[in-house]
Design brief:
Blueprint: H1 2-5, H2 15-43, H3 48-56, H4 91-117, H5 123-150, H6 157-181
Helix pairs in contact: 2-6, 4-5, 4-6, 5-6
Amino acid sequence: MRQFARPFPIIRLSLEARVLYTGFLLFLVLGLASSVWLYADSFGALSARSAAEYYRGGAAPAPVADDAGGPALELPDEAAAPEPLRLEKPARQVMETFHFHLFTVPVVLLIVGHLFMLTSLSVRLKVGVIAFSSAATFVHLLAPLLVRFGGPGWGALMPVSVVGAALGWLPMLLWPLWEMWRPLPVEADGE
């Protein structure tokens, strides 16, 4: 831990440490890519409406009235692709997911943040990125609870927090990778 108490360039890490940290960061990049896929598959779109429908359930299709004044019939629009019926997520499922993420995501953020702290970027920039990432991650963890228990109006937090967390986490994942493996500058021989 003493490396984090004073400046210690990430490039000075031993080869085995750089290989281990590189593997860790690459696994996280793959994890983020799978998160993008899961988000797209679950929500369909980066919108407040799709987030609200995912957690609170979708509205049933409106009945279509018969032109002859007969009873209203629920007929699918043949030209449009049918949308899947979204049922409200059970409260326990949302809380279990929140509980699991509340214990795991901050630990990963802590590790990634420590690696990012070892980079040669300015302290001000590192503090800003870490603070922004922490706040966006916190909002992203809370958003499903707010949508499910607070109402569909909170759905806007989902796409905002997803984009915010990605903007915060990507530099913390990619900059240490670049800095660990960039070529070292050649030092002059006292000329």
